[in-house]
Amino acid sequence: MPGTNLKTLLIEDNPLHSRLIQELLAKSDGPEFEVDSAGTLADGLNRLAADGYELLLLDLVLPDSEDLETYLRVRAAYPDLTVVILSGMEDIKLAARAVEAGAQDYLVKSKLDGPLLVRSIRYAVERSRAQHAEWESPMFRLAQQQFLKAAHLMGLDDNIRQRLLFPQRTHVVTFPFRRDEHRYVETVAGYRIQHLLTMGPTKGGVRYHHDVNLGEVTALAMWMTWKCALMDLPFGGAKGGVRIDPTVLSRSELQRLTRRYTSEIIDVIGPQKDIPAPDMGTDENVMAWMMDTYSHQMGHTVPAVVTGKPVVLGGSEGRREATGRGLVYLVEEAARHIGMDLGRATAVVQGFGNVGSSAARFLEACGVRVVGVSDVTTGIYNPDGLSVDSLLRHVDENRVLEGYKGGDAVSNRELLEIPCDVLVPAAIQNQINADNAERISCRILAEGANGPTTLEADEILQEKGVFVLPDVLGNAGGVTVSYFEWVQDTQNYMWTLEEINDRLRQILLNGFQRTIQRSERDGLDIRTAALIEGIHRVTQAKLMRGLFP
Ligand code: GLU
What we know:
single chain, 5-stranded parallel β-sheet, 19 helices
């Protein structure tokens, strides 16, 4: 949530209180508050009607409305709005009744200090978003829609269809970790979802992001199942997450958070049970701390409990850049398939984290002119081509792309619509949707992110003749090298980078060929063909194992 604007309405008739609260919110080091204020309920309700507010700070005793009635009138008009009650010492009982009736929280005005106020509000908004989102997440809906479409087209047995629609095991935890100042203990929500236990241990990354919720992690776990099955890896899908913005944490806070999260899910992970790896917001340091925490509890070092570790701890050569490298192996193959000369091609890459920056680097190495890149802060466009090396140096020094001088600044929206041969969404989900699919102008869409394209957009892209390398295929390089890492750890053996890259290419191209054959044979779009490849393997395994008891 930090880094986002929280449109807030404050309804408070005491001008002194109103000013104090606005001053405290202005000092927030979390989300930025865009505050409007009203002195009466009637004025407040008028404002709410006009604008898209996400948060209401509400005094219950106003000139034109008193007590619980004030909250009930707001709730009747705006049932989904997050409301935090501002209460006097003497009205606490009343405030508590408003919370029982549906308000997210109450704050006592005389006890307010800045960080406390901001934190309580942040928690209230997060809780409210999570309550609306949990299973109801757009991402989980997308994962289920894609699965249902594939299941329908392959005539999947309904018993198996029902079994695969929801995860087998869902672990939801809340846990505290200490902030550096030692004044605050943050309580956060964490998840570990295991979608399918049929194929072997479960496998998938851990995501730290301020919007993570049960539905999102579940969608990601389901996609891991199809990805592993498509690649013929002996894993079912899993995913984990913690709802926190990691960019505002110090290194030691990140370490404490990671260790506590690991210990909360320690019973459900393990080299033969479930093997975490990096995902958005986590990296090899986080994996080292997870491995260390797990090993301490076991009494001996267990490198195989996570993948994506530093090489010195039993990580694999080539794992860090495996997703981007794998994506580019597949882009080369897709280009051959449609008769495109990569030496004359241009590319745009959305997202400059691990996946996006590696993809840009490997595309450049293939002779592709990278004309646009972006991260959360900005997009950069230069039709003559950007130097990926100098972009990487800039990010190394400044953490973000903002301020890079070698091109024009564009928004993330504009970036996606730049005409190019290869477009790589490598940021977050739901980037190419019904609103912009018509204006996407590329020949190959190579999905580095998970779930960047909605079902409606898929149809539009298909009509436009775009060759889609779907996420379960396009970004499978990461989990494939994770598999190599796990094998090396369990066998105490090390492979060279050449061996890793050769095997990676072989496995990915094999998955690509099978997908293309199925797509051409059955007249399917490539995403559905890839999903059916995965679902088919899982179905065979389920039928062979039979049903217990
Ligand atoms: N988080 C990555 C993915 O979404 C990698 C998972 C892994 O290596 O287990 O595929």
